[in-house]
Amino acid sequence: MKRQAYSIPYLTWMTIFAVLPLFLVLFYAFTTKQGSFTLDNLIKFFDPLYLNVLVRSINLALVSTLICLILGYPMAYIISKANIKARNTLILFFIIPMWMNFLLRTYAWMTILERNGIINKFLSLFGIKPLSLLYTNGAVILGMVYNFLPFMVLPIYTVLIKIDKSLIEASYDLGANKLTTFIKVVFPLSLPGVISGITMVFMPSVTTFAISRLLGGGQFTLIGNLIERQFINVGDWNFGSAISIVMMAIILISIAIMNKFDKDKEGVNLW
């Protein structure tokens, strides 16, 4: 009984801040403003206008996730090969920016990319006219990669340092070179970290609204901006909740697909 009593604060917290909000979102998604049951909110989302927003959001999220994987895996691999002291220092460099407020980090990129920003001032030294770097798809992707890259590096790094070194030594003893060992041994064993990283980057990328609003200048409406607009500007909580439910379903399906590739179930698993 005492052990069960210890779980009461946790269960209370989860009920108030997780279960109840989720129930409210479900309630609003399937009701009208008068409180009667309806499926119109979900049907409305499948209008071509909103589907285009969803496709754009998924495309940008996939590009950002791919870039994070291309940059993050080598970084995680290099860090995992460093000695313990250097390894801890390098990991700290990835964690320190996360201590800063998310919006401040994004605002910093605005000052870097604007027409009078650091990049354009540097280019002007060589007689190059100011480039339109801000308020573009590229700026939004850059913001996503910068903010979410640690979520790719850390899971991969965590798996890499746990790989049994005897397996790598056995590969060398059997005549495999470094490239073959990486392809046949290291990378397959690191897949749980890769899957976790992909999931942890894709989920916030596809639902972000602050990055697209600040670095995109409101010119690129993503699904996160659409949800925010329904709750704050339009006041249509029912439709906003319906979009949230659709996004939740997409994310859960994505996680389920990722788990299919995670044979050892060492990656992200919500089931």
Give the helices and strands as they follow along the chain.
Answer: HHHHHHHHHHHHH
Radius of gyration, in Å, reads 22 Å
Uncertain regions spanning at least 5 consecutive residues: 266-271
- Portion in beta strands: under 5%
Structural class: mainly alpha
| Number of helical regions | 13
Q: What does the overall shape look like?
A: globular
Task: Give the N-to-C terminal Cα separation.
Answer: 27 Å
> What's the pLDDT, averaged over the residues?
88
Helix content: over 70%
Question: Main sheet?
Answer: none
Could you write a compact summary of the structure shown?
The chain is mainly alpha-helical. It is built from 13 helices and no strands.
Question: Could you describe the 3D structure shown?
Answer:
- The chain has 271 residues and is mostly helical.
- The protein has 13 helices and no strands.
- It has helices spanning 2-6, 8-29, 40-45, 48-81, 84-99, 102-113, 118-124, 137-160, 165-173, 178-207, 210-215, 223-234, 237-261.
- Helix 2 (8-29) packs across helix 13 (237-261), helix 9 packs antiparallel against helix 10 (178-207) and helix 12 packs antiparallel against helix 13 (237-261).
- The longest helix is centred in the N-terminal third of the chain and has 34 residues, at 48-81.
- The radius of gyration is 22 Å and the shape is globular.
- The two termini are 27 Å apart.
- The model is unreliable at 266-271 (pLDDT under 50).
